[in-house]
Design brief:
With 246 residues, the protein is α+β, with helices and mostly antiparallel strands. It is 37% helix and 22% strand. The chain folds into two domains: 123 residues, 3-Layer(aba) Sandwich (Rossmann fold); 60 residues, Alpha-Beta Plaits, CATH 3.30.70.100. The strands form four sheets. A four-stranded antiparallel sheet has the order 9-10-8-11, with helices on one face. Strands 3-4-5 form a three-stranded parallel sheet, with helices on one face. A two-stranded antiparallel ribbon has the order 1-2.
Amino acid sequence: MTILGEPVGLGATVLSRVGVLIDGPAFVPHLTGRANLRLLWSATGQAWPPPALDDALDLAGLGDALDRKVKGYSMGMKQRLIPAQALMRKPDVLILDEPANGLDPGEVRALREHLGELARCGAAVLVSSHQFAEVQQLATHAVVLNHGRLIAAGPMDELLGDAGTHLLQADDTARAAAVLRALPGVATVMTRRDEIVVTAPGVPSRDLVHALVTEGIGVMSVQQESKCLEEAFLTMTEGDGERAAR
């Protein structure tokens, strides 16, 4: 196995560029939160403090509790200290297993925004999770595993089966549907109640709206329909358990 093009083994120098968050909290209980982080950092052989310590501590949000012994921490406080140990080194590669476990909604959002910023700055962030909504909000690419088997991998939009489906409401549904059917790139147009469902891969919604407005048809709303990751996962893995058993 290689990381960042370098072979990985015990004591490999490339591991200093990797942040890891796996399993539950494992800290020395009679040391403070800060002392635990310092102990973990000492294994790198580099001088204290780590390059991203302040940002990691801000994300943990432990305040004065950082200088209290970990044995007095609640489970939630320990869960907030875990990402700090992975993030304080400002890693080029970040490997996280269920990073949102034990965090409240505000903390989950803060973690998601921090990971997104790391990715935008060039870090590779790998997240293993069963929380589909969080993965869908965070990830650009996904790998789907079921019973230890690789089911699918690729950009999130492709895995969600984005077929360019748009939902529109117009003041004249019948005439709007006729105008949209005549547009280049439109594959199908259906009406359901007061809504128009348009499948037009590669056609932006603004072009659909422009065509209607040009014909004097008022548009009340337009949105792109998308499948959620949970639905996509269930569709992709349907029957896979039986195949794996055989």
